[in-house]
Amino acid sequence: QSYCHRLQHDMYFLTSTSRLNEQVVDKIVLQLNRVYPQILTNEEAEKFRNPKASLHTRLSDLLKHLQKKGDRHCQEFYRALQINAEQLFNDLPSRKILKTPDPTEIDTDKEQYMLNDRGPVFFLACFSVAAGLALFWYCCNSETRVIGRARRILGFSPIIIGRHVRNICMLYLEDIPRN
Asked: Where do transmembrane segments lie in this chain (predicted)?
């Protein structure tokens, strides 16, 4: 959505009573007059800061003028509004539409949390079980003759697995050739 369309959508909200006071409007006009590139000329800035005209009229004329000038000018208005009236900028209807998530869209932060809510201990436990089952299946396969190699690996593994588990595996490996 372009900034001009957003400004058209937000015009009623901005021009309604007591949303923007004169000081904030003057600051916005001055900022638009002094930024690079200059959005408002000196004559235009004086016109929109004229205290003889009502605030509602000046603000409406300013917003219409910016919409005629183009998207870049409207974008600078939003930047000035954010700097000078942050709370009002956050409450804009167009901002709420931009913040509202699409119900069909996947919320990646929530999805990431749902996938990782069990933590690293759960992952290590699952990985250990899978690795143990793979080693057990590999060693028990009758087509492979790797029992000697497995015995050597398990013989040097008191650091990796507990001593009791190693003893059980060694006894099992010794019983396999007897069967």
From this structure: 120-138
